[in-house]
Amino acid sequence: MPTVRKIWKFVSSMRFAIILLAALAAACSVASLVTQGQDYAWYAQRYSDRTAALILALGLDDAFHSGWFILINGFLCLNLLLCSVSRLPRLIERTRAEADPKAALRGEGGVRAEGVADPKAAFARLRMGKPVETATEDGRRALFASKNRIGLWGAWVCHVGILLLIAGFSLGQATQKQYAVYGAPGQAKAIGDTGYVLAIDDFRIALREDDTVEQYTADITVTGPDGRSEGAEISVNNPAALFGMKFYQNSTGWAATVRVAEGGEPLQEAILCAGEYLRVADKPDLVIDFNAFYPDYVQSAGSMPATATGQLNNPAYLYSVYYLEQMIGMNVLMEGEKLTIDDYTVTFSEPQPYTLIQIKADRFTGLALLGGLITTLGLLLAFYVQPAKAWAVQEADGRWTLRGESRKGGALFREAFLRAAGAEKDKS
User: Fold this and answer.
1) Where in the sequence is the domain holding 108, given as residue range(s)?
2) According to a count of CB atoms within 10 Å of the terminal CB, is the N or C end of the chain lower?
3) Around 356, how many Cα atoms within 13 Å sit in the side-chain half-sphere?
4) Which residues share a beta bridge with 404?
5) Do 268 and 281 contact (CB within 8 A), yes or no?
6) Based on the structure, what is the number of domains in the chain?
7) When comparing pLDDT for 185 and 425, which is higher?
8) Are 229 and 348 in the same domain?
9) Mean pLDDT computed over 124-153
10) Would 330 be classed as within a structural domain?
11) 59 and 170 assigned to the same domain
12) In 10 A of CB 243, how many CB atoms?
C-alpha cells in the first residue's frame, strides 16, 4: 500500500506534469523537423539508410499518430485527472469555509475598519448581497456576507478544460482519417471508403491586379449513402463541416479533356487531372497517361519543358503511352495536335484548373472544442471573478468593527473596502 500511495502521489504531482510537458514539447519539436508521411526510400535519399531506418523505427514519419506520442498524452491526461480528483475535496472544503460565518469571526486576517455606523450599507457598496445575522462566541451581534465563491474554482475548471482538450486532441489524432479528392468542375468522386461522394460544382481562382493568386474557392456538394446531400463553399483558410467531416481547399493544378477516337469515330471522352491516366475503352492494355500541363509552353535545346507564365498563351500537354505496362512513347502535344496509335487518335483540349480538397474525419473535434471552452471559462473565473467576504461585529458603544478579506485581487479589494467603510464613518 505505501508503494501504491507513492506511485499515486508521483503520477498526480506537478513534477510529473512538468516532465510530461517537457517530453511533449520535445516530441513536437523533433516531429516538426522531420517531414511527415514519407516512405523509407524518401528518407534514405535525403538523409541516409541508417537515419531512414531510425525514423521509421521510432515512428517519426507519423509522429502525431505514433504509440509513444499517444502514450505521453495519455499520461498527461491521467496526471490532470488525478490532480483534479485529489484537489476536489479540499476545494469543496475551501468553498464551504468562505461561506462559514463562524470561521470568519474566528479569523484575525484581512483589512479592518472601526467605528462604522451602518455595516449593511457598507456591505451593499461592496456588492456583498444581504448579510447573514449571527453572533460571536462572547455573544456580540455580528453580520456576515460573501460573494463570488465560484472564483475559487477557476484553476480547477481550467485543469478540467485542459484535460478534455488534450484528450480530444489525442483521441482525434489516434482515430482521425484523412482523404484527398481532386477534380474539375462537373466531376464527382468517392471520398475514400466512407460511402460519401464529393461533387465539385464550381472552382474559381481570384487574381490580384498583378495577376498573382488572391484566393481559391470551390463550391461542393456531398452526398451520403442514404442519398441526402449537403453543399458548401470552401476556400483557403475557410473550411466547411459536412456530415461530421471537415473539408479544406488545399491546392490546385491543371486538368484537360482527353478524347479518343477509333477509325475516326468517337470512342470515349474524359476529364483528366495532371497525373491521371485513361485506359482505352476497347483495349484496356493501352493506357494514355496525362503527365503534366504547360499553359505557356517553352523549351530550350537540352532543357526540360517549362512554362513561361501561368496564362494560357501556348498550351501544351506532356503525355506518355503504355501498352502491356511497358512505355511505348512519351512526348508533348500542342493544342490542336493529335496523337495516333494504330487506329486510335488521341487529343487533349479544354485545359482548366482542378481543385484538390482535403477531408478530415475526426470524431473527437467536439470534445476538444468543449475542452477549449471550459478552459476559457476557467481562465475567466480565475482572473476576473474575485472571491471576497466581509463581516461586522457590534461593539459596546453601538458602533461596528468591519473586517473583510479577498483571496484574489487583495489590493483592489482593500481599496474598495476602505472606501465603503469610510463612507459610513463619514455619515456618522
Assistant:
1) 99-148+386-427
2) N
3) 11
4) 111, 390
5) yes
6) 3
7) 185
8) yes
9) 91
10) yes
11) yes
12) 16
C-alpha 186/C-alpha 297 separation (Å) is: 27
Is pTM, for the whole model, over 0.90? no
If asked whether residues 167 and 144 sit together in one domain, one would say no
Q: Say how far apart CA 6 and CA 12 lie, in whole Å.
A: 10
Phi first, then psi: give them for residue 34, nearest 5 degrees.
Answer: -110, 125
List strand residue ranges (DSSP E) for 188-315, in order.
188-190, 197-207, 213-223, 229-235, 240-242, 245-262, 265-273, 277-280, 283-294, 297-298, 306-307
Cell numbers at 195, concatenated: 460511402
Task: Identify which of 10-19, 286-295, 303-312 has the greatest average pLDDT.
Answer: 286-295
Q: Are residues 420 and 330 in the same domain?
A: no
- Any idea what DSSP says for residue 60? G
117 and 78 belong to one structural domain? no
The Cα-based distances of 362 to 43, 86, 179, 246 in angstroms read 28, 32, 12, 8
Residue 426 has pLDDT above 60, yes or no: no
What cell does 76 get?
Answer: 498527461
The answer on 182 and 169 residing in a single domain is no
- CA pair distance 32, 50, nearest whole angstrom: 20
Q: Please write the tens of the pLDDT for every residue from 172-183.
A: 877 888 899 999
Predicted confidence at residue 323, as pLDDT, reads 94
| 210 and 113 within one domain | no
Written as nine digits, the cell of 352 is 482548366
User: Mind listing the pLDDT tens digit for each residue in 286-297?
Assistant: 999 999 999 999
Residue 303 CB coordination number (10 Å): 8
Among 45-54, 240-249, 309-318, which stretch is predicted with the lowest mean pLDDT? 45-54
367 is a domain residue: no
CB 246 within 8 Å of CB 233 = no
Instruction: Say if 368 falls within a structural domain.
Output: no
Say yes or no: 226 and 105 in one domain: no
The lowest-confidence range among 230-234, 284-288, 419-423 is 419-423
Is 92 within a domain?
A: no
